[in-house]
Every structure is written in C-alpha cells, then in structure tokens.
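Changelog entry

Holo records now carry the ligand SMILES as an explicit input line rather than a separate metadata file. Below, a converted record for flavin-adenine dinucleotide, shown in the new format.
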Amino acid sequence: MSNKTKILILGAGFGGLELSSLLSRALADRVEITLIDKNEGFIFGFSKFDLMLGQSSRPEVTFFYREITTHSVEFRQETVLSIDPLRRHVITDAGSYETDVLVVALGAEYNIHATPGFAEGGHEFYSVPGAIALNDVLKNFESGKLVIGIVGQPFKCPPAPCEAAILLDEWYEKRGLSKDVEISVVSQWGVPIPPSPDGTKAILDKFEERNLKFVTDRVITSLDPTRKVAICSDGEEIPYDLFLGVPVHRVPTVVEEAGLSENGWIPVDDRNLATKFPDVYAVGDVTSAPVPKSGVFAESAARAVADHLIAEITGEGDPEPFDGKGSCYVEFGGEMVGRMDADFFPGSTPTAPFAGPSVSVAREKKEFAAVRRSRWIDG
Ligand SMILES: Cc1cc2nc3c(=O)[nH]c(=O)nc-3n(C[C@H](O)[C@H](O)[C@H](O)COP(=O)(O)OP(=O)(O)OC[C@H]3O[C@@H](n4cnc5c(N)ncnc54)[C@H](O)[C@@H]3O)c2cc1C
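Structure line, unchanged by the conversion:
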C-alpha cells in the first residue's frame, strides 16, 4: 500500500492546472495527483477572440493534456458524472475514485435557456464552439446594429465584452465596414469595470475614439427574435440585427447534484478555499469566493489551496491565506494591451490600478501564456 496522499482534482482549467503544477513541484514524491477533465486540452478564455475572428484554429490555441509531463500528475480524459463530497467518492464515465483530498475546479457553465429567445435569436463567443461558429456569422454580417448584451451576473472576465467590441470594430475596419456596423455593449453596470476608474476611463476613451457605445444599467431578460429586439426588465426594447450575448452562468449540473453549491455557487472558506466537507476544496469560477470569475483569480485560489495542503502534508510552514490578487490583461486593438492589477483581498474594498495600453504589456501577455504552458504542461 502506498503511503502517498491521494489528491483528485476535478477540472483541468486555470485552477486545476495551476494547483497540479504547484503540488507536483512541492510534494512530488509524497502525493499521487489525478487530474480529470472531459476535454482533450486547455484553451485560454482570451483565445476565444482569436477563434471568433478566425485568426487561429482550435488546435493552434489548445494546450493538449496528453502532453503533460508534470511529475506525479496523471491526467485522465473522463467526464465526471457524480461527486459524493462526504465520502470523497467520484464516478466518471470511465471509472470511480476514492481520494484523500478532493478539489473541485469544474468552472462555470452557460445556461443559454435562462434567457428566452437567446437560443433561437442570439449567438455567443463565451464557449469554444460558440466562438468558432460565430466566425461564419460575422463574415456574413456586413451592416447593421451589433449588440453585445450581458444578460446575467456574475459573468467571466468583466472586461471581455468591451474587449470583444473593440476587436470586432478593428476587424470590420480592416474590411472597410466599420462605418456600416454599429457596435454597442449593453451592461447591467454603470461603467465597464467598477473597481478600476483608470481602466474604465481607458476603455470609454477607446469606445469614443472608435464610435462604439456603452449602454449602462440595462438588465436584458429576453430576446424577441422575430422583431429582433432585446427586452429589458423595465420593458425597454433594444433593437439589434446581430445579438452576441454573454449568457447566464451556472455551476456544472454535477456540482449542483452533489449538494456542493448553495445560492448558485460553492461556498468556501475565504482563507484556504475549503468547502464545508472535510478535505474537499473548491477553486475558481465554480465558487462564490468574493473575486471576479477570471482565470487569474482561479490561479491565486489554487496557490492558497496548494500552500495549505503543502503545510498539512509536510507539517511545516505557515500557509499564506488567499490573497484575492490577479492581473488581468485587456485588449485595446492595434496590438495594444492594458493590464489591471486587481486586488480583491477578502474583506477589503477591491482596487484595480491600470497600466497601458501599450505594446510592452501586449508582449507581457504573450509571455504570461507561454509561462503557463511551460509550468502546467511541460512541468
Ligand atoms: C471571452 C473570454 C475571455 C477571457 N479572458 C480572460 C483573461 O484575459 N484573463 C483571465 O484571467 N480570465 C479570462 N477569462 C476567464 C477565464 O477563462 C475563466 O475565468 C477561467 O478559465 C476559470 O478557471 P477555472 O479553473 O475556474 O475553470 P475553467 O478554466 O473553466 O476549467 C474548468 C474545467 O472543468 C472541466 N469540466 C467541467 N465539467 C466537467 C465534467 N463534468 N467532467 C470533467 N470535466 C469537466 C472543463 O472542461 C474545464 O476544462 C475569459 C473568459 C472568456 C469567456
């Protein structure tokens, strides 16, 4: 019998990959890490812009899990069908697992059907298939009102709808169609990025320069595809010719059925991301941790869980609590990128000072992606 601690990580996204690589580096011979994901590879959220605009193919933006060489990490491409958090027992489409430590990092899914009319009359770029399918739609859309509507909260990567508007306008500009396609972002918020006044100003300045609209304080509740209008909670109607929605987000069904979520998301201890079940942790978008749903916060949560587990398993060290920090890159077009250094330390007022946009931050973003590839995949 092995005396190694068995750690089962469900979901090989930002959170799961970061956690597996940290534990592997710190505890290599003391743990057996199994990492499960239903997909064949990881794709950054921001790569969905490239897919939507036809600038890269799916294989070009995929980190294939079969290439993982991280020590003590075994990847299995399986779909999780049920989780028993009390017994730390997991059933997948290929087998079942008992584990010492269970980490749920299954991310957030989209519920298109929560918004009547969306499935029939809208498109989206938040999922990989949605972004790929959108490319043909965009190529055939040459004039009219293009509305990017945020239909639910919370949603992943708060700057993403505005980034999409800027990149789409640039894409149409290259085709000589920028004047014919009127792009607007419809938001439930009063500004693009509430905790970042400087980031908000930079985005709104870019919107003004490009003649894009940011429509505030609107809650879109349904679409009427026949009349091509988005209907708001107060009855106001927003006409569109092409509707790109940021869908309502939810936990994967398997998480809800496990009794792990409450009020929509998995509640966790703000310091170490422990759930109410012993030796069961949750990181990233699947939780109700008081941070935005972004990869960089899934990463900082993974760091906190790793520190905590390393201290528990080695009996040494004083683990750092979850710092709620993450630097988010924001696309501004023209190969320029800005950066928000967000600090959502639990219990304090969030701040997000802004740097850029510049080509040097754009280079930094490329480096960010390359470093993840080598850390997560090449070990
Ligand atoms: C357009 C767009 C742009 C974005 N840009 C950025 C950005 O610039 N910076 C940033 O930090 N974040 C960005 N994000 C957000 C980022 O992608 C997510 O917040 C991040 O991926 C969350 O990490 P996670 O580990 O919680 O979940 P995920 O990365 O979503 O990983 C969850 C994993 O669980 C797997 N899974 C789910 N259910 C099952 C199941 N039943 N069985 C097996 N596996 C399952 C999924 O396949 C997935 O791989 C962007 C998102 C979008 C949509």
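Spot-checked after migration. The two ends are 27 Å apart (CA to CA). The mean pLDDT is 96.
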